[in-house]
Design goal:
single chain; about 375 residues; alpha+beta; eight-stranded mixed β-sheet; globular; dioxygenase activity; Oxoglu/Fe-dep_dioxygenase_dom; IPNS-like_sf; DIOX_N
Length: about 375
């Protein structure tokens, strides 16, 4: 006799799934303005043993996950995939005619076309700045909830800096196990530093300076890889500083659900805990953190304007028994308030060749 897996339904107690009022619990969670860290801190005895129902993924998603894992266990290829690592050493001082420059362009082109993800080493951002950035994010999220509450918002247009769970409450089927601080650094005008939290104001400005410089270099190399005139990808920059608390039931929820980024590209600073995965050849590939590295992934906008030569890969972050996991995602994109249409460059389309025909429609940032 077989039994239907209950995937954490035991946490519902006497309440049937059909009678569960998700919207009510979501609102109660949102009204605390304390985020997931607040849920963890409020646990009796200081040790959370079960996650609230709003964080539990639906049964069909959990069943699909179980099937994916069983397939992965039966196939060796998925475990053999390794995220490409590209050495940026000296690229900022190279001439375009240098052999080393061309090699880096080729590596970025291949990684962008094949994987959509790659890790950068020797990228030029001092490790001391990255370390202090991570410490500052941790300080912000672990300070008293009363200090963070005035910054809590569900309206992304309300402020240049805001704190929330960053789950799409009315669209998502469960709340994600993370808290996020969004800082709109360039929009395209630079942010007033006084709007940033004191816990990492100075290092955030310093880190941003380095990331924008790196973004400009990446834009040049990506343009070269496509054989296009200079792309314009770094006019808008958002930092999203994520905090993923340790989770007592990581198999039932997600730190960040499956998605692709509505950006040109994203630069990620992360700690060594891991948990980020992306899709490659229908497998979920674990990104193994490389000390001192930064992770780059191609976004939807660059996939569109490259006529799908560059791949915007879906990715996610697994919840973990170990934590907190800290990361800072730097999104280079366009403004959500503009109606500008982004489409592929005409240089990448040829009516004579079916292989070069347009594969993407023009889109706005909101699309």
């Amino acid at each position: 006799m077989t039994h239907e897996p209950n995937y954490g339904r035991e946490f519902l107690g006497d309440h049937e799934t059909a009678s569960y009022d998700r919207n009510k619990d979501m609102k109660e969670f949102e009204d605390t303005k304390a985020g997931v860290k607040g849920v963890v801190d409020a646990a009796a005895g200081g040790a959370l043993s079960k996650i609230p129902r709003i964080f539990v993924r639906p049964d069909d998603e959990l069943a699909e996950e179980e099937e994916e894992l069983s397939v992965l266990k039966r196939c060796e290829n998925g475990s053999k995939f390794e995220t490409p690592v590209i050495d940026f050493g000296g690229v900022a001082w190279m001439n375009k005619n240098d052999a080393g420059y061309e090699e880096i362009v080729n590596e970025i082109r291949h990684a962008s076309e094949t994987w959509g993800f790659f890790q950068l080493i020797n990228h030029g951002i001092p490790e001391s700045v990255m370390d202090e950035m991570m410490k500052g994010v941790k300080r912000f999220h672990e300070q008293d909830a009363k200090v963070k509450k005035p910054m809590y918002s569900r309206d992304p247009n309300e402020s240049m800096v805001y704190f929330d769970n960053h789950s799409h409450f009315h669209k998502a089927r469960f709340a994600e196990w993370k808290d996020s601080l969004v800082c709109r650094m360039l929009s395209p005008d630079p942010i007033n530093p006084k709007e940033l939290p004191e816990t990492f104001r100075d290092v955030m400005m310093e880190y941003t300076k380095h990331v924008v410089n790196l973004g400009d270099i990446l834009t040049e190399l990506l343009s070269e890889g496509l054989g296009l005139p200079g792309l314009d990808c770094t006019k808008k920059l958002d930092h999203i500083a994520h905090y993923y608390p340790a989770c007592p039931e990581p198999q039932l929820t997600m730190g960040n659900g499956k998605h692709s980024d509505p950006t040109f590209f994203t630069v990620l600073l992360q700690d060594d805990i891991g948990g980020l995965q992306f899709v490659h050849q229908k497998f979920w590939v674990d990104v193994k953190p490389v000390p001192g590295s930064l992770l780059v992934n191609i976004g939807d906008l660059l996939q569109v304007i490259s006529n799908e030569r560059f791949k915007s890969a879906e990715h996610r972050v697994m919840a973990n028994l170990v934590g907190p996991r800290i990361s800072v995602a730097s999104y280079f994109s366009g403004s959500k308030t503009t109606t500008k249409l982004y489409g592929l460059f005409k240089e990448l389309v040829s009516g004579e060749n079916d292989n070069n025909r347009s594969l993407s429609k023009c889109i706005t940032i909101l699309e």
